[in-house]
Amino acid sequence: MPKIVRFSVSLEDDLLEQFDGYCRAGQFATRSEAIRQLLRERLTVQAWEADCRDAAGTLTLVYDHHRPQLREHLTRLQHDNTDLVISTMHAHLTHDLCLEVIVLRGPASRLKKIASQLRGLKGILKGELVMASAEERG
Ligand code: NI
Predict the structure, then answer these.
(1) Å from CA of 69 to ligand 1 middle
(2) What are the helix (H) ranges across 5-132?
(3) Rounded distance from Cα 96 to ligand 1 centre (Å)
């Protein structure tokens, strides 16, 4: 059985308030229990992302299509990575806004990289990558 170690954490009062709300909503017995679970989840995801060779994912982007060059950059990045990009769905949300969902498959590290590149383009208002293992035993 591992030894229990105590440590103190400093954080802003409003963040602590939000965290306590999270603990209540999740019905955690103590803050420590909630923190343990969050840490385990995050560390598991991080370890998985580091070495998953065959991952699949979606990258959802919301952007203003009037932004100069943005469409061109989005298209170029996807054409530069045709081995990763399986499909793209585009929806015109409003007069200005577009939603694009890009389906990706490949090594997790490369999916994260192209997602960062796409998300980082000027004019992207929201970008979220969701990944899953595409291996038999993920
Ligand atoms: Ni559009």
Answers:
(1) 14
(2) 13-25, 31-51, 70-79, 108-119
(3) 8
